[in-house]
Amino acid sequence: MTETFAYLDEDSKRAVRRTILKALAVPGYQVPFIAPEMPIAYGWGVGGMVVTASLLGADDRLKVTDHGSDETVNAVNIRAFFTRTAGIGTTTRTREATIVQVRQRVPEAELVERQVVVYQVPRPDPLRAFVDSAVEAARMHAHADYGRVYTRLFEEKTGSHGAVQPGYDYPVLVQGRYLMSPSPVPKRDNVRLNDCPAIQIFGAARERRLYALPPYTRVESIAFEDVPFDPGLPEDGRRCVVCGCGESHLDHLLLRDDGMSEWVCSDTECCAERADA
Amino acid sequence: MLELPPPLLTLDGVSHGPRTLHDASLSLYPGEVLCLVGKSGAGKSTLLRIAAGLLPPGKGRALLPGGVSLYELPEQVLVSLRRRRFGFVAQDAGDTLDMAASAAANIAQPLFDNGERHFGRALAAARRWFAALDLDAARLGDRPGVFSGGMRQRLQIARALVHGPEILFLDEPTNGLDTAAQARLLTLLSDLQRCTGVAMLLVTHDLRIARLIAHRVLVLEAGGVVEEAPPDRLIADPRHPAARDLVAAMI
Q1: Which residue has the higher pLDDT, A234 or A257?
Q2: pLDDT higher than threshold 70 for residue A161
Q3: Which residue windows are coiled coil (chain A) (predicted)?
Q4: Do A44 and A116 have their domain in common?
């Protein structure tokens, strides 16, 4: 038995590509998605892998990051998987890649028009935080019934119980119409989704949903008219121990013998470039 | 002869279920407080929910000014109309309040549902209604679970009125409150009605409440409207046996 190119059979890839086209036609709208099986469990990045598999061509170069890092087990294994099943080249440099598959971060490096960014998404629908029913959530999206999202934002600013909206997976409004989950990226990454030259595709295999942002789509983080979105600036005094940068998104990675914390850049490519400069 | 303004809402021969409600009609006029009274199981709450756009009747129609039939509107138009023009106060505050959200967020939610996207305006409205309903401004951030029963009912009323509805529907709003809290709530409702001019359709099984607040009373018995009168006339001269039972129960 011979493996097909990039593991998936051609019919499945064609079905996924049709879904991608529909998702690009209605930015931010969650399109039902066949999410064929991959050799990892649903919930571990199948959505991203399926999208990548359906898009890959023999000339593509693939970059994969997990939490911004090219070196995690997830990133290394997904690259190895596609190298083996598609024979394509991989890279850790964003500017050399045609497809960038990511989880938990938007690449910090500049993206360009010829690129596709593929996100792995665990929970695609921000409204499911408010309603249990998928049918009711779909009705709310259809009618742009997003009052509850603003109520939660209001609650955060007026309640006695502190933050209720996490600092990641902060919902965005696409082209002023559809509420969308940016996937669990830190909310400061939301600003890079806006007006991005690259195509961005979000695959949620476990939930069977796929959505997309065509190039240069308007993406705004949910905010009040009189209280601008706060992207959450880096905390004072924290710097990456590798490159010294205090502006990038830092991971709390190392504990020193004396019990003090250390921080490193989450985006390993940009960190290495800064360290080499 | 005094000419009445057109009714804000008309129920025309509505029925529900095999026995719950049959051929009930009512008209609610601008600025009016109309009480639905009757013993348990008479169909009061069902009639209220039909009037509030929450329960389609099996037969009959709910009409808005201009002959618009409420339940023939597309679903989203009905939802939007209900949110803009109606307010609802339930027997149990847990049915309308979000117990996991702050009091301020509970009051402000109808504003956000109606498209408000300005934080300052929403907060000012929540504060204004907190003060109007004699609630402690320091507790704006508290969740409804830590408020007393009477305060929770007042929170519900604030939430139901914050967006300036034309009609306020109240389903036994004094249920479970002690006598003093009932009196305070009714005085408050009376004052609010005079200040805002909102029409009220109020369900109660207690004629004393109707006497304190209503302009007109409908008596329901076994799913039908059996008598209609101003409260003083009804109490002085009840004509239907069901009305006589209610008057007797006042003493």
Answers
A1: A257
A2: no
A3: none
A4: yes
B144 contact residues in A (CB cutoff 8 A): none
Q: How far is A146 from chain B (nearest CA, A)?
A: 7
Best residue in B102, B129, B143 for a mutation probing chain A (most A CBs within 10 Å): B102
SS3 (DSSP) at B7: coil
In the predicted model, is pLDDT for residue A176 greater than 60? yes
Residues 6+ apart with CB under 8 A from B32: B199, B200, B215, B216
Q: Is A235 exposed, middle or buried (0-12, 13-18, 19+ CB in 10 A)?
A: exposed
What percent of chain B has pLDDT above 70?
99
CB-based contact A8:A36 (threshold 8 Å): yes
A213 shares a domain with A239: no
Of B108, B102, B88, nearest in space to B145 by CA: B102
Q: Are residues A42 and A95 in the same domain?
A: yes
Same domain for A199 and A256, yes or no, is: no
Rounded to a whole number of angstroms, the distance from the CA of A134 to the nearest CA of chain B is 17
* Identity of the amino acid at B67: G
Instruction: Tell me, yes or no, whether A199 and A272 share the same domain.
Output: no
Tell me whether residue A228 is in a domain: no
Regarding whether A243 and A113 lie in a shared domain, the answer is no
**Structural domain that includes position A238:** 233-277
Q: With a threshold of 0.90, tell me whether the complex ipTM lies above it.
A: no
Which amino acid type is present at position A197?
A: P
A265 is catalytic: yes
Q: Indicate which CATH number applies to the domain containing A196.
A: 3.40.50.11310
Q: Hey, what domains does chain B have and what are their CATH numbers?
A: 9-250 (3.40.50.300)
Asked if residue A212 lies in contact with residue A118, where contact means CB atoms within 8 angstroms, the answer is: no
Which residue among A142, A160, A227 sits closest to B119, beta carbon to beta carbon? Answer: A227
Domain boundary among A174, A189, A221: A221
Q: A119 and A246 share a domain?
A: no
| Mean pLDDT value across residues A252-259 | 76
Which two tokens mark B132?
A: 């109007």
How big is chain B by its Cα radius of gyration, in Å?
Answer: 18
Q: How many domains does chain A have?
A: 2
Phi, psi of B72, rounded to the nearest 5 degrees? -100, 0
DSSP helix/strand/coil, B199: strand
**Segment holding B161, helix H or strand E:** helix B149-161
Catalytic hit among A28, A45, A68, A203: A28
Extract the tokens encoding A250.
């830092």
CA distance B2 to B13: 26
Which secondary-structure segment (H or E) carries B209?
helix B207-213
Nearest 10 degrees: CA dihedral of A125, A130, A135, A141? -60
